[in-house]
Amino acid sequence: AREGGLLAEHNFYLYGTFRAPGTNELRYLLEKAGATVIPTIDQLAPFARRINRPIILCDPREQTDYERDAGIIAKFKPLI
Prior knowledge:
single chain
C-alpha cells in the first residue's frame, strides 16, 4: 500500500444516497483508506479540469436528482 493509505491521492464523490453500506459508512471507509471525499456537488465542479479526476460512486436505485445534476456529473465518467 502507498504511504497514507491504499486510496491516498484519490478523490471520491458520493452521489446520492446509499442503503447498505450507507453514505456515512462509505465515507468512513474511503477516508480510512486515505482517500479525500468531496462533500458537495458544488465543490466537485472545479475538479473537472484536473488530470486526476474524482471517482464518483452512486447507487442507481437511489438517484433522485440525477437530471438536475447531469451536466456536472457527465464530466466525471465513468460513474461507479
